[in-house]
Known about the structure:
Blueprint: H1 8-11, E1 20-33, E2 36-49, E3 52-69, E4 72-84, E5 89-101
Antiparallel strand pairs: 1-2, 2-3, 3-4, 4-5
Amino acid sequence: MPARNDCLDVDGRSSYDRAAGGGAFGIGAAGHFSFFSVYGRIRSQLTAASNVPATYWGSGGAGVQFRIAHSIDLYAQGTAGGYANRYDDARFYLYELGIAVRFSTRSWRLGSSR
């Protein structure tokens, strides 16, 4: 039998038919130095739903960005996170490399027709 992830086995209700709620807190910081920037962030969340155990979710990440041309940057970042409750837990890891194109918004004016 294929695995089911819609909660019907618990009490006959789908995940969309439950009262749910939670709260989250996060903080991040960044710094720009000459031709590079560094940044980091963390996030913590607690959720609960009808007939589902309270679940803690957390994640954190950090990265660096290097300017290689006037408006072109290269960046690399990593994030780790996961969740845990009294029945289950899981972890994930994400690594990313990319190119960022920067542009100024200071010369843009809302509603102007230049």
